[in-house]
Design a protein that fits this description.
Strand content: 25-35%
Low-confidence stretches: none
CATH architecture: 2-Layer Sandwich
Number of helices: 4
Largest sheet: 6 strands, mixed
Structural class: alpha+beta
CATH class: Alpha Beta
Strand order of the largest sheet: 3-4-5-2-1-6
Helix content: 25-40%
């Protein structure tokens, strides 16, 4: 991946880990044709409140350490699935049931998936 994309992903993961987001998966879409971005970062939050905290932490960490802001954030009202669009990277923050239902990892199984170990 390109350096800017790698830096962005690194700061997104840091923001997730600061609020104890779980089951982080990076889906590298570089080698997949006709995708809307270069990567997805997916994680799970335990409650709508934690999902909002994760989105805030990601936004703040990326703004401070990578000088970027999302061009769109959707889903904060209900906070069951929040999507944050950073152009090259789209972040998906799910409640466990929603993540299981949409199963993005399975949909993009032909891409390279990288699991990040949970911090305890």
């Amino acid at each position: 991946m390109e350096n800017n994309t790698e830096l962005l992903i690194d700061k997104i993961v840091k923001g997730i880990q600061e609020k104890k987001g779980r089951n982080i998966v990076i889906i590298d879409l570089h080698d997949i044709e006709d995708t809307i971005c270069k990567a997805f970062v997916i994680c799970t939050g335990g409650s709508p409140t934690q999902i909002q905290a994760l989105a805030d932490s990601i936004s703040e960490t990326v703004r401070k350490e990578a000088a970027q802001k999302p061009i769109a954030v959707d889903g904060l009202r209900q906070s069951m699935w929040v999507a944050m669009d950073y152009v090259d990277v789209i972040v998906h923050i799910f409640l466990p049931d929603m993540r299981d239902f949409y199963d993005l990892e399975h949909l993009w199984a032909d891409a390279q998936l990288t699991e990040i170990e949970d911090l305890d």
